[in-house]
Structure formats: C-alpha cells, structure tokens
Amino acid sequence: MGRNLEFDKEETVKKAMNVFWEKGYNATSMQDLVDAMQINRSSLYNTIGDKQQLFHECVSSYIDQVMEEARQKAANEKSPLQALIRIISDKADWIIESDKGCLGVKTIFEVAQNDETVRNMLCQSNDVYLKFMTDLIQSAMDAGEIEHSEDAGMMAEYIMISFTGWKQSYILQGNPIKVKKMADFLIKSIMPKG
Amino acid sequence: MGRNLEFDKEETVKKAMNVFWEKGYNATSMQDLVDAMQINRSSLYNTIGDKQQLFHECVSSYIDQVMEEARQKAANEKSPLQALIRIISDKADWIIESDKGCLGVKTIFEVAQNDETVRNMLCQSNDVYLKFMTDLIQSAMDAGEIEHSEDAGMMAEYIMISFTGWKQSYILQGNPIKVKKMADFLIKSIMPKG
DNA sequence: ACCATTCTGAAACGTTTATTTCAGAAAAAA
DNA sequence: TTTTTTCTGAAATAAACGTTTCAGAATGGT
Questions:
Q1: Spatial distance between the Cα atoms of B13 and B59, rounded to a whole number of angstroms
Q2: Given phi > 0 = left and psi -120 to 50 = alpha, else beta, which region is B99?
Q3: A181-192 average pLDDT score
Q4: Do the beta carbons of residue A160 and residue A154 sit within 8 Å?
Q5: What would you report as the CA-atom Rg of chain B, rounded to the nearest whole angstrom?
Q6: Average pLDDT over residues A41-63
Q7: Cβ B172–A112 below 8 Å, yes or no?
Q8: pTM higher than 0.85, yes or no?
Q9: Taking all atoms of strand D, which protein residues have CB closer than 7 Å?
C-alpha cells in the first residue's frame, strides 16, 4: 500500500556512480549527485541514505559490473588463453579510452584507508577477481596453452598490478602507444615461448 | 625594511604536506592546515597563497624529498645491485610501516587528472625517478651484476609499478608478510640466475 | 470513494568551507 | 626616535556543504 517509487533504484545508483567515478568521493557534492540522479534530495535520503551509504552502493554496483563484464568476455572466447588475451588487451583499450580512472583504484587510494566498509568491499572484490584470473591461468596451463613453470596465483597478481600501473602511466603521460606496448609485452610474456 | 617572517617557510610547508599526505587533497580543510602549520591564516595566504598553491608546494617538497632519499641510499651502497636491493627492500618496509599511503600515488589518482600543474610535476618527477632507476640497472648490467638480456628501462618501470601494486595490496589486505614476499620475489627476479 | 501509506518538492537547517579584511603589533631602515 | 614597511591575529564574509523537515500530491489496498 502507498505510493511506489518513481525511479529505478539501480539505474539511479549507476548515475551517481558515474559522478563519483569522475570526481572522486570527496570532490563530489550532494548537489552534483542530486543533479545527476535526477531525483529529489529527500527521495535520495529516504530510499538510499546519506552520502556514505550511496557511495557504498555505487562501489558495490561498480564491482559487480566489472566482474560481470570479465566473466562474459571469458565466456565468449574459445580457450582460456584467448580469454586472458582478450581481457588484457580490452583493459588496455579501456584505460586509453576512458577519461575517468578506475573507480576501484581511485577509491583504494582516496577512501579505503579511512573507510572500513569500503576497504572490505574492495578487498573481497579483489580476491574474487584474483581467483577468477588464477583459475583462467591454471586452465590455460592444464590445457598446455601456457607453461606450467610459473605459479598461477602470482601471475594473476602480476597481471592485476600491471593494470593499475598502466592507468598510472596513462594519467601522467597520456601516451596510448606506451600503454599498448606494455599490454603487448605482458601478453607475450605469458604466451608459450618460441 | 619591514618585519621578517616569524616562521620557516620550508618547515611549515612540510607540516602541511603531512596533513595532505594523510587525508588527501579534498578531505583536508584550510582549518586542518592552519592548525598543523601553526601559523596564522593571513600569514599563510600572504606568503604561500591559496589551498591549491600550498598543495603544489607540498607536492614539490615531497618529490624532492623522495628523490633525495633514493639518491642518498644509492650513494651509501657499494655496488649498483646493492643499491637496487636496498631501495626495493626499504620501499617494502616503508609501505608496511607508514599508515599514510604514498603522497605521489594518492595524488595521481585523486588530483592529477583534473589539475594540470600537479600532473606535470608528477610526470616530470616520475621521469627523473625512472631515469635514476634505469641508470642504476644499466650500471649493474655493465658491472656484470645482473643479466644484459633484459631492457633496463622496462625493468625500471616494472619495479616502480610494483611499488604501487604493493601499496594497493597492503591497503586492502594489511598483510605485511605478503608485501615482503613480493619484494623478495622482485629482488630475486633481477638477481643473477643460478 | 475512502483511507492509509509513501513518495515528492522546496525550503530551511546549522556547519563548515575557502578566502578577505583590517586594525594594530613588530621590526628593519632612516 | 621616527618612519616605513611588513607581518600577525581575530573577526567577518559569502558561498557551499550534508542533512532534515514538512505540507501536500500521488497511489496502493479496501
């Protein structure tokens, strides 16, 4: 009974996410958010909560989105190695194209240190992504697509750290060719030798 | 003629730097800064300028400090390889001990994207540090301490990216052993084989 | 149609923000 | 000592901040 919400919550959170993504947590004002979400202040406070709670929803939504995309990409490729290559090269493209950074990384360095909830969310998401990548690498090893000599977990971690490094490089230097080169180098280094 | 400044500018900027370092740019208020710097508001505005200018001074001071420390460490070691090992393992220790992040990295992801001055400062500093590390690696290669097979510049970049990755990992998981392990692994991977 | 409930819009809340102002204290130069 | 310049301290400014309030519109259930 009573009136229904006039807006789709998920959709509205995504609009807010884009603002946080672009400006960062502290530089984003409630006014920015209300404008972007196209809903009323009180609706926002009634249905989602304060700025911090909204941010948590946004981070959560971001995490799910990134994970979902990665899984879909992997599912569309024929082999584990192909999936890895696709994920890596798409990440390089994404870093170059998007003028925003990566919300996850930005949040780690701006917010996570002082916000336990966010830290736990990102930590868990990091674990999930790491496991996903490790499994992919392990499958490629088992299929004989890449060498067994390396440790799959370590390799996965190395790949993920590289993503952050590429973004760091691209923010500073704005050189897309360099990012592409680093991605190619990474792909080559996991490919079978010879 | 006229009165002299009652405070040491450099020293005062360092106090401000520590606040920015801990809280980040946007989360730091002028009140925080005035309190920490122990000078008056108007003295701050008269001698340094507004929040943005003060921040630029802080970043500049931070960059100089980091670079100076690295050079000193290298000078205190007997060989280029020893210098590299010292810099890497000290960085790991520093990441674990300091509850603050790295001001440089934090700033890249929070501010640099929207502040050209900061971006240029960090980009230049990055180049200088990269050249420093590349030269160190090249020297070690020439001295036969590490293999010639790898590209010195790429190796330097890989080492620097790793630092960011370690901090990211430590913020999320707070696991000092893991950071130490990654540092050991990195050191081993640049050491002569066998 | 009616009631109960819930959402909406705009205004108002009290803080905090970054920055400016200015009278007066301090000290270097004459 | 006087002059002149500069710095200092506290108060004031206006705008922006996150959040709350509440009358009234809207819509579900009965």
A1: 10
A2: alpha
A3: 87
A4: no
A5: 19
A6: 95
A7: yes
A8: yes
A9: A 1-4, 28-32, 41-42, 45, 50-52; B 1-7, 39-43, 46-47
A75 — phi, psi (to 5°)? -65, -25
In words, the CATH class of domain A9-190 is mainly alpha
CA distance A82 to chain B (A): 24
Q: Where are the alpha helices (DSSP H) in B8-50?
A: 9-23, 30-37, 41-47
Neighbouring CB atoms inside 10 A of A118's CB total 21
- A113 — contact with chain B (CB < 8 Å)? yes
Sole residue written with tokens 């400062």: B121
Amino acid A3: pLDDT: 64
Question: Which residue of A63, A105, A162, A172 is the best one to mutate when testing the B interface, meaning the one whose CB has the most B CBs within 10 A?
Answer: A172
Kindly list the residues from chain B whose CB atom is less than 8 angstroms away from the CB atom of residue A165: 157, 160-161, 164-165
Closest CB from B110, B119, B165 relative to A24 = B110
All residues at 6 or more sequence positions from B100 whose CB lies less than 8 Å from its CB, including other chains: B18, B21, B22
* Angular region, B174: left φ>0, alpha ψ -120 to 50, beta rest: left
Between chains, do A113 and B122 touch, taking CB under 8 Å as contact?
Answer: no
Contacts of B150 in chain A (CB under 8 A): none
The CATH architecture assigned to B61-190 reads Orthogonal Bundle (1.10)
Q: Do B126 and A161 touch (CB under 8 A)?
A: no
- Who has greater pLDDT, A193 or A166? A166
pLDDT digits (tens, 9 = 90+) for B31-58: 999 999 999 999 999 999 999 999 999 9
